[in-house]
């Protein structure tokens, strides 16, 4: 059993809380950034040591990183601020935090694992799977900053530059649909479907997307911290064949609302460009590299459609139906 210390940002979140529990079960001491008393309580209940601060507390981030054996960055300034900050503001805060963490690790050769997304890569023009070397999406998924640079790509550039300063930095690209344990985006879309009285998909809904179970994602983060090679990127992905129409139909059936197609233009008017792109872009990201290099395995017993139909989202759907009635 390891006696090493890990510093985690975003440790009280959906993936982070499972990562925290997983790391502690493997003998690590976890110190975790915490913004609020409620997060302190949650982190303490998991066995972690809460450290008060946020992503703008650069001196705290640098100090904690300098004394840790590994650092995992999962926090995102968008959490709790959706619709309140611009994407450029979001990545300015995120990138500042990554730089502060990297500063604390300079010259150490220790691991810094930073979170990104598989939507970074443009879809394969022939409909195949993409990998970590595939071309980026023109203009980026999140748009560009005031200097014309793609925002999401900027975070990866900021992180990977730390390799040149003696940091064993790696990037984990999460699937756009992280699911399981009745949480994450699936729950939010189901709640939205109940409120709207319908579920929609964009266009013909035929675009395929990528999923990963939250427990599998948490295990990969720790594996990357332990074994990942400096400067490398790893996809945290599983299924690559599920369509947006299938997702909408599964969620609609679960919560008992009709499902219909909606044009890209109408969806953008109602939901904005960010969410419309999320619900329409083809993304088929292979996990081969993580499996072959790190020995990671996908252990989820159910895919996302099964999980919605008769898994952890059954209780969520029942609660939403009761509330609606």
TrEMBL record:
Pfam families: Epimerase (PF01370). Gene3D superfamilies: NAD(P)-binding Rossmann-like Domain (3.40.50.720). Residues 122-147 are annotated as: Disordered. InterPro entries: Epimerase_deHydtase, NAD(P)-bd_dom_sf, NAD(P)-dependent_oxidoreduct. Coiled coil: none annotated. One of its GO terms (molecular function) is aldehyde dehydrogenase (NAD+) activity. This is NAD-dependent epimerase/dehydratase domain-containing protein. It comes from Neocucurbitaria cava.
């Amino acid at each position: 059993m390891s006696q090493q210390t890990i510093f985690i940002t975003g440790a009280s979140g959906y993936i982070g809380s499972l990562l925290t529990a997983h790391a502690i079960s493997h003998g690590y001491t976890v110190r975790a950034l915490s913004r609020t008393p409620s997060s302190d309580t949650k982190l303490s209940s998991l066995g972690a040591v809460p450290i008060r601060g946020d992503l703008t507390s650069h001196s705290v981030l640098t100090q904690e990183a300098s004394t840790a054996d590994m650092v995992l960055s999962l926090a995102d300034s968008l959490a709790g601020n959706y619709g309140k900050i611009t994407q450029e503001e979001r990545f300015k805060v995120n990138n500042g935090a990554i730089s502060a963490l990297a500063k604390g690790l300079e010259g150490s050769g220790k691991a810094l694992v930073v979170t990104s997304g598989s939507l970074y890569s443009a879809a394969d023009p022939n409909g195949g799977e993409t990998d970590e070397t595939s071309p980026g999406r023109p203009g980026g998924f999140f748009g560009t900053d005031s200097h014309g640079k793609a925002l999401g790509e900027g975070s990866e550039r900021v992180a990977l530059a730390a390799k040149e300063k003696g940091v064993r930095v790696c990037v984990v690209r999460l699937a756009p649909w992280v699911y399981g344990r009745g949480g994450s985006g699936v729950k939010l879309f189901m709640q939205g479907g109940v409120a709207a009285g319908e579920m929609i998909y964009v266009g013909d809904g035929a675009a395929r997307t990528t999923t990963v179970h939250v427990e599998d994602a948490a295990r990969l983060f720790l594996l990357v911290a332990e074994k990942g090679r400096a400067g490398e990127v790893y996809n945290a992905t599983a299924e690559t064949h599920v369509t947006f129409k299938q997702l909408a139909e599964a969620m609609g059936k679960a919560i008992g609302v009709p499902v219909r197609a909606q044009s890209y233009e109408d969806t953008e008017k109602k939901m904005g460009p960010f969410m419309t792109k999320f619900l329409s872009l083809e993304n088929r990201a292979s996990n081969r590299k993580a499996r072959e290099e790190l020995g990671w395995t996908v252990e989820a017993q159910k895919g996302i459609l099964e999980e919605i139909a008769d898994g952890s989202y059954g209780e969520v759907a029942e609660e939403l139906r009761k509330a609606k009635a």
